[in-house]
């Protein structure tokens, strides 16, 4: 069973930066087989896609609302994925969830139901 633990959230002023981490435990499997994504969930709404990175350098994907401000990366040797959040805005305030899935095709990358494993989330709060 894959376990994901997020960290790095916090309270920052608008314009500031944060770096989120998603540490994975993948007993018996190679972290590289998993596509890792970040989603966020506004109160009372469904989870929305933020960014994703494929396992073996297969590329990164971003929501239009964060493109150019957020950067996703991963360190397969450390079983960890990262999300660098720059130029934060008040509307980026949310709980951010890390998710992992295998055998995802590119057209399914942004769909939360395609991911099998989820972390518990980390709160990002941006003050205006």
Structure description:
- The chain has 128 residues and is mainly β.
- The protein has strands at 3-7, 10-13, 18-25, 34-41, 48-53, 60-62, 70-75, 80-85, 94-102, 117-118, 122-127.
- It is globular and about 45 Å long.
- The model has no long low-confidence stretch (mean pLDDT 95).
In a nutshell, what does this entry contain?
It is built from no helices and eleven strands. It is mainly beta and 128 residues long.
Q: What is the total tally of β strands? A: 11
Gap between N and C termini: 40 Å
- Uncertain segments: none
Find the structural class using helix and strand composition: mainly beta
Give the radius of gyration.
14 Å
Strand content: over 45%
Helix and strand pattern: EEEEEEEEEEE
Please give the oligomerization state of what you see.
Answer: single chain
* Overall pLDDT: 95
**Strand count, sense and closure of the main sheet?**
7 strands, mixed
Q: What are the key terms here?
A:
0% helix; mainly beta; four-stranded antiparallel beta sheet; 128 residues; 49% strand
List the helices and strands and how they pair.
Layout (H helix, E strand, L loop, with lengths): L2 E5 L2 E4 L4 E8 L8 E8 L6 E6 L6 E3 L7 E6 L4 E6 L8 E9 L14 E2 L3 E6 L1
Parallel strand pairs: 2-11
Antiparallel strand pairs: 1-3, 3-8, 4-5, 4-9, 5-6, 7-8, 9-10, 9-11
């Amino acid at each position: 069973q894959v376990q994901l633990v997020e960290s790095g959230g916090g309270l920052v002023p608008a314009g500031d930066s944060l770096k989120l981490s998603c540490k994975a435990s993948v007993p018996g499997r190679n972290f590289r087989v998993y596509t890792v994504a970040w989603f966020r969930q506004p109160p009372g709404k469904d989870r929305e896609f933020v960014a994703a990175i494929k396992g073996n350098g297969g590329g990164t994907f971003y929501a239009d609302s964060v493109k150019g401000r957020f950067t996703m990366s991963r360190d397969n040797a450390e079983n960890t994925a990262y999300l660098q959040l720059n130029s934060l805005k008040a509307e980026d305030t949310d709980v951010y969830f890390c998710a992992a899935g295998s055998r995802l095709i590119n057209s399914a990358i942004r769909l939360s139901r395609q991911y099998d494993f989820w972390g518990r989330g980390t709160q990002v709060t941006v003050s205006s």
